[in-house]
Amino acid sequence: MAMTTEPRSDRDVTAIDQSTGRVGDVVFAGLARSSGLLIMLALAGVAVFLVVQGSGALGNTGDAVYGKDSIWGYVWPLLFGTLLASVIAMIIAAPLAIGVALIISHYAPRPVAKTLGWLIDLLAAIPSVVYGLWGINFLALNLVPAYDWLQRNAGWIPFFEGPVPNSGRTMLTAGIVLAVMALPIITAICREVFAQTPKMHQEAALALGATRWEMIRMTVFPYARSGMISAVLLGLGRALGETMAVALVLAPSLLVSFNLITAEQSSSTIAANIALNFGNASGAKIDTLIFTGLVLFIITFAVNFLGRAIAVRGVAKG
Amino acid sequence: MTDTTLTPVDETGRHSMPLQGAQLPRYAPGLAAGIAVGIAVLAVLLGGVGAVAAVMIGWVLLAVGLPAWSRAVEGPRKAADRVAGVLVWSAFALAMIPLVSLVWTVVSKGLPILSAQFFQNSMRGILGEGGGIYHAVMGTLIITALATLISVPIGVLSAIYLVEYGKGSKLARVITFLVDVMTGIPSIVAGLFAYALFVIFFGPGVRMGFGGSVALSVLMIPIVVRATEEMLKLVPDELREASYALGVPKWRTIVKVVLPTAVAGIVTGVTLAVARVAGETAPLLIIAGLTTGANFNPFSERMATLPVFIFYAITEPGIYDEEMAAYAWGAALTLVTLVMVLNVAARVIGSVFAPKTGR
Description:
The complex is a heterodimer of chains A (318) and B (359). With 318 residues, chain A is an all-alpha fold. Chain A has one domain (56-317): MetI-like (MetI-like fold, Orthogonal Bundle). Chain A is built from twelve helices and no strands. Chain A has helices at 2-5, 10-19, 22-55, 71-107, 110-125, 128-154, 171-195, 199-207, 212-241, 244-249, 270-277, 284-317. In chain A, helix 4 packs across helix 7 (171-195), helix 4 runs antiparallel to helix 9 and helix 5 (110-125) packs across helix 7. Chain A is flat, with a radius of gyration of 25 Å. Chain B folds into two domains: 28-112, no CATH class; 119-352, MetI-like (MetI-like fold). Helix content of chain B is 72%, strand content 0%. Chain B has helices spanning 28-47, 51-74, 76-110, 116-120, 134-165, 170-183, 187-202, 209-234, 237-245, 250-278, 282-287, 306-315, 321-352. The longest helix of chain B has 35 residues, at 76-110. Residues 1-5 of chain B have low confidence and may be disordered. Classes of the chains: A mainly alpha (318), B mainly alpha (359).
């Protein structure tokens, strides 16, 4: 800032004058443009390399796909597990995140809200492997009594059939860890959208005698609807691609099962499966794993694309 | 007061309606919460219920009692408002539980193992006690520093292109979109990309620290571009125009006027990006691998990093699983501290060195 307000001496001006030239401009613009192009190249590279390396796995059978009949028989249970864990995470995280965002944007007093927002940001900064460590050593163990209770009282629902493992390492635990990890992202976006609700709308509602909740329901939510949807979709994208927490929490297996609170019959996720098997894989197995990575990439791409598209459309409309 | 009607009478003698409906006192939520907590505590002491059940009892009492009281005094609309208030605050409290318990677990389990020796030793030749995370700390620092070296120039220059040169052009729109997509790339996919790329040059089974840096850059560049772009947009056009009016070429205007104005925000964004990728595990697991000793050459052989060390200490501890678990917690505490320090530093830089716009 100081740079711009300081009056320059005459000597400086002439110095600048001498160095003025089209060359510098062309070089700098070229540099800037080429790094932009490099980003395009990098993303194209991600897609191309995954396709090239992964497509070799399409014909894999038997040992190369870990004893399954075909590559699809291998991918499907993993895909199912990925979607199941992420959907559980969203069911838990979305309402909580909206509540937290409302606290920060509308309920808490100003100075407190700033600190709270900062706390939630800290939650986003914690590395995923630490979440996994916490999930397996603290959360899973402490959830066992709750799972026992669920199995006793709601065991007739297929979700809660059990048997409950002593370690507590189940699909539901993985979903909860993913929810904790996705929560800060959803909160951050919701909070921003909530805060952008026009002050006039809110004050008008209050002036007409609306209570705080009515004001939020009538002005904030309608204004923020597309933002909230895109926030949940972006959180879903994060949960889908999350690796380490799930790799640590879930015992790996290749099954399609809706049983949420058991260890033996729970599905694994694509990302966790790659992390657990890549170190020991070689040859055709690596191709198989890269192919599952490609599937994951396509799904997260689609979810993120949808999320961004909804956000953009919402802005244009609002 | 000779008037016998129920409506109050003001000094002029006219009947008037009260301007406000009946209201609960300001301390009502606090009082209700106090009573709920009291009953929950009583239930624990006298009824012998468990802590979790007591919390549930207290919460249900609050969630039902306060709105019921409000409904009786203030009417149904205010009661709905109270319900919403209780639910929103409960959501917040519930979301805080993981943060508090996570920090508590990591600190309480990680602190006992921390010692000078823990940071000076590596795991080379160590079975059981006496090991340390020197090699992993060094690996994390080297790989993250290299990733920063790759990401910052590309990220900042791309943002400059987007804001200063390509504004509104088709290429800029495509790049903005791709950057958005890149923020959503799963970290493990970034690792697979780096692996697939390096296999071409070094053959199958390649492991090297630099590959980890490339993978981390894929995750870091979009964050840097986003942060820089936001900051450059905040630089007022008057500054640029003043510079142009003095005959300064565009590139010197950017380097000498625009960037210095936005530098605090850019540094904040970069620091946050570093904090974000320093804790990434998945890509490093794939391309950087794990060693027991320190490796200072990122261009050859495996390189240990803190997150990967934690992962393997838990999943493949061998027979010394208690010692390895202790190392994992120590490493986790170190990693969390590192990330937190970077975060706090970013905020401090952002608030202290932010340009004073006078607004």
